[in-house]
Amino acid sequence: MSLLRWILFIVPAVILLGFMSGQIAGSGEENRWFSALEKPAAQPPGWIFGVAWSILYALIGTAFAMILHARGAPLRGLAIVLFLFQFALNLFWSPLFFGMHQVSAAFWLLIAIFVSALVTTMVFGRIRKAAAWLMVPYLAWLCFASVLNKQIDWLNPNAETLVVPAARTQI
Questions:
Q1: Residue 120 in 3-state DSSP?
Q2: pLDDT tens digits for 65-87?
Q3: How many other C-beta atoms lie within 10 A of the C-beta of residue 121?
Q4: Where are the domains of the chain?
């Protein structure tokens, strides 16, 4: 399969899975629990996250497609397993944070995602340098997301037990 075919299949799949993870978890500004939390000063507007993650998923999907295309390359199997592992962790973050309201656990999960993505990037670099470079913005964003997550944890020590009143409508 040509690299372009891999990209045309993998990138939309990665973006779709990322989008579905967020949707299932109820992530974003519409989440009433999240809206009730105190946010750090560095918190960007909500729409930035959708744009950023779409770009990041396209980049890491392209990197993964490059590795899948590198048939016969030493470490290819390990790189595939590492990518799938870190991506599975990534997909679990939104349900853990937005769905289960586990802010502290979500921070530690981000640390695990970063470490596994860093190892993945290093192995990618042994196969295709361009694939490793495509992972760098993702690593940077994971650092930023970790800082935001930790600041939200500090600003909201009761976040895990916060109960938001039911929405009221007037008829």
A1: helix
A2: 999 999 999 999 999 999 999 99
A3: 23
A4: 3-159
Tell me if 20 sits within 8 A of 92, measured CB to CB.
no
Q: What are the structure tokens assigned to 93, written together?
A: 């973050």
What's the predicted TM-score (pTM) here? 0.91
Contact 42, 151 (CB under 8 A): yes
Cα distance between residue 17 and residue 57, in whole Å: 9
Q: Which two tokens stand for residue 51?
A: 């744009």
Per residue in 29-78, pLDDT tens?
889 999 999 999 999 999 999 999 999 999 999 999 999 999 999 999 99
**Amino acid found at 150:** K
The CATH classification number of 3-159 equals 1.20.1260.100
